[in-house]
């Protein structure tokens, strides 16, 4: 048996573990991402984590699979584009630099696609011919996975589902520079902002009038308020979930996947979020695809490690 | 060399031709579709057309490829669902019935996917890794084509791009029974209806007031009026083209295809339609995919014959 090290490299931490060819995970560990220290420091931290994890291996380690933040080209192993959460990350030769630092072969892709690959292999999508993974959290992203793995795209940019025009987001400025995209109504920060817009409107029922009201400062606060019955909060959560459900249904009408799997921070928000998501999704599906399941992911944070390791096993199977 | 007969089976006619392994088309012919006479009559008409076409072949005919109206399962060769344009068409064992009637192996898929396969092989998408084909005419449909061919989907329903929620279509009833889908603002009939809604509104500039105005009765009339400078007509055309451009850009942000190819009746509408299509498409693309080309199809009606024949050649290559 040969093992792989699976890594999940995000803006705040690098997580990793040993993954067996059957997908069992052991020796998990993580380190903070030195996000402000530049790519070389990040590669060094990742290599040290790999060494610590690989030290637990009782079988040979065939390689490292890594899912990383940013737009990653899995063929060249380079970071094509990235947000500012990792300083100077765009342009990093992630694959070859990590290979040089560890002496192990490296396979990489972006974090969401690797997460999707894990769920498709051994999670909520196990056995399905095709799967649409939706990651709803700080942003809205995802992956369309078939028997050939996640769709990568001509610019390695496939999966930017947050940038579908959304009727509910009309006129709102998007993180990408356009307006009216799904992400600005359905992401976690967007739900907080929708609450803030409504709660500060002069006639809003939840508007603070006596100075003793404490504003929610996080999306989790808004979700909690909604669960407690606050109408303004419930509307903000439902608006985001509804917009997401409708857009995802449009993707299902377009691609007819075997199922949709939902992950990310919003997937933990409970029925206040899931109920309007399901309702909007069901409302928009054409008859012929209306039995398409919409389910939560099942592997949690292990999904990315398992999916990243799968990149290594798949590469070995091909060569 | 071995030839294939390519067939395009639509609501009004069955077209066909001999196709060589390099994609050259000869001996084209067509017959009216006996749409009201039931599936057996349609299969008989198709088989007679095949016999007439195959009579011109100077090389062996390996099989028949057919792209047909309706939701077609390419694996079973059955018609899963269909509109009323072909009576009792749903449930027809298209593949095996045509094989029995002709003695030739039959490969089938729906007309739009076969059209897309032709364009991907030898048309506007030649050499591209992936292609999104948009067919804009009586309805809005299409196909997402990769190296493995067109995406089929779990219910053979992939490509129903007309059923993406569209901000511009909010509240309008869709052919699928829902409301607010792209098709009801962007299809040819939808553009005619948008013109009618605007022209009959009391304050519309194009409203007939003197009894001598002749209403446009077809989408082509509206397109012609728009090209002649009629503002109401131009707005109806631009609304449909703009909604389509935005929805297609959302698909490009989601799937990152190498290019988008546009076909169908609306693709012949000239700059009155193409200009707002391009403008809306360009407006919605994220920076990373903004060089994605949007181009007209190049093979005309031969695309379906070529794509249908490709199904036969691909099947032979696999076996």
UniProtKB/TrEMBL annotation, chains A, B:
<comment type="similarity">
    <text>Belongs to the ROK (NagC/XylR) family.</text>
</comment>
<protein>
    <submittedName>
        <fullName>Glucokinase</fullName>
        <ecNumber>2.7.1.2</ecNumber>
    </submittedName>
</protein>
<dbReference type="InterPro" id="IPR043129">
    <property type="entry name" value="ATPase_NBD"/>
</dbReference>
<keyword id="KW-0418">Kinase</keyword>
<dbReference type="GO" id="GO:0004340">
    <property type="term" value="F:glucokinase activity"/>
</dbReference>
<dbReference type="Pfam" id="PF00480">
    <property type="entry name" value="ROK"/>
</dbReference>
<dbReference type="InterPro" id="IPR000600">
    <property type="entry name" value="ROK"/>
</dbReference>
<keyword id="KW-0808">Transferase</keyword>
């Amino acid at each position: 048996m040969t093992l792989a090290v699976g890594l999940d490299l995000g803006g705040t931490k690098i997580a990793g573990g040993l993954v067996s060819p059957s997908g069992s995970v052991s020796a998990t560990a993580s380190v903070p991402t030195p996000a402000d220290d530049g790519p070389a420091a990040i590669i060094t931290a990742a290599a040290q984590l790999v060494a610590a994890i690989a030290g637990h291996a009782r079988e040979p380690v065939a390689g490292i699979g890594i899912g990383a933040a940013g737009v990653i080209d899995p063929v060249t192993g380079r970071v094509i584009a990235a947000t500012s959460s990792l300083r100077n990350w765009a342009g990093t030769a992630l694959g070859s630099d990590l290979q040089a630092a560890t002496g192990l072969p490296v396979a990489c892709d972006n974090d969401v696609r690797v997460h999707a690959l894990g769920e498709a292999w051994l999670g909520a999508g196990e056995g399905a011919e095709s799967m649409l993974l939706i990651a709803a959290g700080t942003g809205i992203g995802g992956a369309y996975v078939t028997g050939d793995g996640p769709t990568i795209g001509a610019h390695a940019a496939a999966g930017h589902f947050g940038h579908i025009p959304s009727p509910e987001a009309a006129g709102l400025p998007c993180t990408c520079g356009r307006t009216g995209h799904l992400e600005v109504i359905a992401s976690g920060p967007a739900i907080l902002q929708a609450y803030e817009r409504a709660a500060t409107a002069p006639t809003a029922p939840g508007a603070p009038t006596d100075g003793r009201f404490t504003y929610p400062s996080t999306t989790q606060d808004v979700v909690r308020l909604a669960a407690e019955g606050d109408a303004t909060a419930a509307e903000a959560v439902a608006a985001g979930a509804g917009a997401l459900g409708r857009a995802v249904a449009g993707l299902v009408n377009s691609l007819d996947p075997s199922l949709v799997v939902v992950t990310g921070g919003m997937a933990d928000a409970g029925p206040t979020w899931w109920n309007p998501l399901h309702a909007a999704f069901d409302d928009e599906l054409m008859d012929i695809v209306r039995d398409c399941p919409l389910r939560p992911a099942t592997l949690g944070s292990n999904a990315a490690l398992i999916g990243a390791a799968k990149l290594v096993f798949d590469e070995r199977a091909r060569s």
